[in-house]
Write a structure and sequence with these properties.
single chain; mainly beta; Jelly Rolls; 2 domains; six-stranded antiparallel β-sheet; about 5% helix
Length: about 500
């Protein structure tokens, strides 16, 4: 899938502290991208085309999402009437939809990224400016007078990047820092993390006035799902019809649901989903250490179904809307348990042959583990069962994950409760994957992005979403597999349910 494609966001936000005020607006990610060759400029942008241009052309490194902000339209002028930058031919803000150009904030409008981008109450615009050679620097400011001052210093107004709130009840503070470099250059960084900010100051950075208040999480009570065919959180979705689907704090169904339905033919696996449950965030109780998802899988003909692809079961992730195929999304992080055909996916046959089903561990696409048979992969065989899962058999499967990327997996046959054995010879698979995440427990100032809530370089301890999704490559109307008693729970250090 083209990594430039992602999903639409439709947000209805209730302003805390203002019970009579409800504002509807679109939240977008504020990406952080650092220029590695020069190491003197960090770009922050809400435009996905700018994100791709920075990576593809200017060799920037993506550091994930610094915050979520209400988006603005790309035609807004600067505070002094400056003309906005609207992208390049190859990385444009408008995409052709037939014969009509559609504003999509740099995203592919085929995935419903068509924003209204109205300014919310109690907010102010974020102005982005840029200074080129001999010193390079991107800077964000909400001050019209600072815009004028920066322009007098050789900066050029680029665009209105979005909005920040002026009221502390509407978000968390987005702090700005700068450092004067030896070559006379200056660099600016932004973070919502006080500890990351302290690390910057300790390394010689100076704290500037904060920009304002932003969202630390993706607040998304509902989404307009049109990107695939199937069941999403119990609601039937079709590609051509926009359907409002609840996603935030979704409690999965414990009743039985069938992993199948007439999805039609010639649809790719990104659009055919049956039995999809996904939440944005869940409330984390005090003393919680483990997050756990469990379910009973009655396999039916799953592992001989030619159109069955796999079932990713993610914990700790950030959803961006209609799309839930996390391995191909940019705003996510997490670790998944994957149910798939033995020998399927990109990892070869592992240790169990090519018949039946198998359990894999999958890390987010930013955590590629290297290559298998010459192909990059984020899938791991070490969670394989000694004997593959079989058709027409019921299994109780449990997957647990903590903030240190420790994983626990068990699989039992039901109703007798006989445990299955993993290739290590144990009935409980355990492993820590923290080494696959580059952020240390105490980041240095140069790793301030590790304090970002959805950094692609850090394990998301504050991200508490989950997803269960059955994926097919085409018509699966004959599938007889079912799932029941799907639960997502928090556990304390001793494994007690909270």
């Amino acid at each position: 899938m083209n990594s430039r494609k992602t999903c639409g966001i439709a947000v209805l936000f209730s302003a805390l502290g203002f019970s009579s005020v409800t504002a509807g607006y679109d939240l977008v990610p504020l990406w952080e991208l650092r220029n590695v060759p020069a190491a003197t400029d960090t770009l922050y942008t809400t435009y996905f085309n700018d994100h791709n241009l920075a990576i593809d052309v200017y060799s920037n490194t993506e550091h994930g999402v610094a915050a979520w902000v209400p988006c603005s339209v790309d035609t807004l002028k600067g505070p002094n009437g400056e003309t906005p930058y609207t992208g390049t031919t190859d990385y444009e803000d408008y995409y052709l939809d037939g014969t009509t150009k559609v504003f999509s904030h740099g995203y592919d409008p085929a995935h419903d990224m068509n924003f209204t981008c109205a300014q919310p109450p109690n907010s102010t615009p974020i102005y982005r400016l840029y200074k080129y050679t001999p010193q390079t620097d991107h800077i964000l400011t909400t001050s019209p007078s600072e815009v004028s001052s920066l322009e007098a210093q050789g900066y050029t107004f680029e665009r209105v990047e979005g909005y920040v709130f002026t009221n502390s009840l509407l978000g968390v503070l987005l702090r700005r820092y700068h450092i004067n470099l030896a070559n006379g250059d200056v660099e600016h960084r932004y973070t919502i993390s006080s500890s990351a900010g302290n690390a910057l100051v300790a390394a010689g950075w100076t704290a500037d006035p904060a920009l304002g208040y932003v969202s630390a999480t993706f607040n998304n009570p509902t989404i307009n799902a049109t990107g695939f065919t199937g069941e999403f959180n119990g609601v039937s979705v079709t590609p051509g019809t926009s359907t409002a689907v609840s996603i935030q704090n979704v409690v999965p169904s414990t009743s039985s649901f069938r992993l199948g339905g007439n999805a039609g033919s010639s649809l790719n696996r990104a659009t055919v989903a049956h039995g999809a449950f996904a939440s944005n965030t869940t409330s984390r109780p005090a003393h919680a250490v483990w997050q756990q998802i469990s379910f009973v899988l009655n396999t039916g003909t799953l592992f001989t179904n030619a159109n069955f692809s796999h079932i990713p079961i993610y914990l700790h992730y950030a959803s961006t809307g209609t799309k839930t195929d996390l391995a191909y999304e940019k705003v996510y992080d997490g670790i998944a348990l994957v149910v798939a055909k033995a020998g399927a996916r990109a990892i070869g046959t592992c240790a169990s042959g090519n018949t039946g089903g198998q359990l894999y561990i999958e890390l987010g696409a930013a955590k590629l583990a290297g290559t298998v048979n010459g192909a990059p992969t984020s899938l791991y065989c070490d969670s394989n069962l000694s004997a593959p899962l079989q058709n027409n058999t019921a299994y109780q499967i449990t997957f647990s994950l903590d903030d240190s990327a420790n994983v626990k997996v068990t699989a039992l046959t039901t109703p007798n409760g006989n445990p299955l054995t993993f290739v290590q010879g144990t009935t409980v698979f355990t492993k820590q994957y923290l080494s696959k995440f580059s952020c240390p427990s105490t980041p240095t100032a140069n790793m301030s992005y590790c304090g970002n809530p959805f950094s692609n370089d850090g394990f998301p301890v504050a991200n508490t979403g989950y997803i269960f999704r059955a994926l097919y490559t085409g018509d699966d109307s004959s599938e007889s597999a079912t799932v029941s008693n799907l639960k997502v729970q928090w556990l304390d250090v001793n494994g007690n349910v909270l």
